[in-house]
Amino acid sequence: MTFTSFSFDPRIVASIKSCGYVSPTPIQCQAIPPILDGHDVMGLAQTGTGKTAAFALPILQRLLTSRTDSRGPRVLVLAPTRELAQQIDKDFRALSGRTGVRSGVVIGGVGMGPQIKALRSAQVIVACPGRLVALIRQGDADLRNIDTLVLDEADRMLDMGFMPDIKRVIARLPAKRQNLLFSATMPKDILALARRILVNPKTVQVDRTAPVASVNHVFYKTRNEGKKELLHELLSRSDYRSMLIFTRTKHKAKALSRQLVNSGYDSTFLQGNMSQNQRERALNGFRDGRFTIMVATDIAARGLDCDRITHVVNFDMPDTADTYTHRIGRTGRAGRTGNAISLVTLDDADQLRAIERVMNIRIEQETANGSESRDDARQSAKRPSDSRPARRRRRRSGRSRGAAA
Ligand code: AMP
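A: This is the predicted complex of the input protein with adenosine monophosphate.
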């Protein structure tokens, strides 16, 4: 399939070219036609698959072909974090090119003035639910003309407790509208939300919960006290261009980054306690390559779009397999290859088993690679070609898995 099959307005075609997109990604092939036809769509896709353009392009096309005289926004995109909202807004701007369609962002942590203006003049609003509700309450957000609602990373929004705010926003929207819901995972609460909001939806999905295929997964068994030394060893022998390291706490992200700087690495950090300016400085520096390492917490790194990330390191393992999926989605983007390295302790055995199960990969121990003297045996993840028989074989042989392997 090529972009020409969608018969987009020539101005949109020109923007697609200037973004450097040659052919649509699988999620774009599947999602663009039903969205253009006006259907509600439920999209199961991880970040990194091209899902933003999968909804932005048909939305722009529909805005160009169904102009109205009414003022105020017609498209509302809800996203869980400021970074993701800014990224979506940036993508809309890049793809709208010379169409005259304007987009604006509504997020916390910055002044309300420009956002109130955007709510009066932009056709597309990309918002975090909390700030949008605040603006609705003070009478500055008129959403009566919204005809398209997008919930992006819906699973994250529910994880972050945004359900009540999402309901408050939806209560302000016209009942007749097109609804698009994108989520990397499909837990029960997302299914319930989809049932409540979507009308006869078309479901599109790429690689349901599997990791991005272009990512190589490696697991190192270690102890908490051995993690820093192991990280230094990995840094000295990996051929990384940009590395994103995840820690569990904000304090650790900052402290680890400072230690790396003291050891001579170009590192920065990203965590929820930073001001919007500090976040943007760190993010821009990481994106343009001034910092080759960024140490971040999950909340801060959500929505981070940086094509140059070659390595994602789980310094602390995530609590769930879904979070693992999100983290590793930061590398191997748009057809490039990436590396996911996890430092696992005995306490992480349950998470490893969940990752194996949910992502249909087999985590197995390999011989230690250059670190035989330590107890950080190297483990790698493979997709079993015949997963059920392989599982049976493993059960028969009684081999344990994950960190305990
Ligand atoms: P997303 O899943 O929306 O976060 O997109 C991941 C990355 O893929 C972004 O850097 C996009 O600019 C890029 N991208 C989106 N669509 C295409 C395409 N058709 N061809 C190449 N890159 C794309």
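The longest strand covers residues 215-221. Residues 21, 24-25, 28, 47-53, 305, 307, 333-334 surround adenosine monophosphate (CB under 6 Å).
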